[in-house]
Structures are given as structure tokens and as C-alpha cells.
Write a structure and sequence with these properties.
Elements (H helix, E strand, L loop, with lengths): L4 H21 L5 H8 L21 H14 L7
């Protein structure tokens, strides 16, 4: 199966959201949450996330969602 940036980005966003929820609720992950966390694959092949307005074929809404999740959950602006 070919590498699909959108699929990996979606999985990474879901894993990050889950990690923030676990941290906020100060608890361990359930089995279902561990599965979500296990799908995290990093962003090495998704360099578009660094661009505010990517020109690649990657969907802007996913990148915007990632930036929003990080911004909303960071303790301060320097952590984003």
C-alpha cells in the first residue's frame, strides 16, 4: 500500500488529540485509546505541516486542524 499523507495526518491528529485528553484528565489510556496512539507515525514525510498555506496536494483543512489542536492545547504560545 502506498504512503497516503492524508491518512497519516488524520491518524496523527487523532493521536495528538487523544494524548492531550489523557494529559488533561490525568489518566491512563483505554485499550481503544492505545490503538489510536499506536497509529501515530510522526511528520517526517509530511513537511507541508510547517507551511501556513501549503501548495501541495495535502488538504488544507487537516493542516489547519492540526495547528488549531496544538494552539488550543498548548499551555502558552511558546510551546506551539
Amino acid at each position: 500500500m502506498a504512503y497516503n499523507k492524508k491518512v497519516h495526518l488524520r491518524a496523527n491528529i487523532d493521536a495528538i488529540k487523544t494524548a492531550f485528553t489523557l494529559e488533561r484528565e490525568n489518566r491512563q489510556a483505554t485499550a481503544a485509546e492505545r490503538e489510536i496512539l499506536d497509529r501515530y507515525s510522526g511528520f517526517g514525510a509530511i513537511k507541508e505541516i510547517l507551511d501556513p498555506v501549503p501548495v501541495s496536494g495535502l488538504a488544507n483543512p487537516l493542516i489547519n486542524e492540526l495547528h488549531d489542536v496544538l494552539r488550543e492545547n498548548a499551555r502558552d504560545e511558546k510551546r506551539v
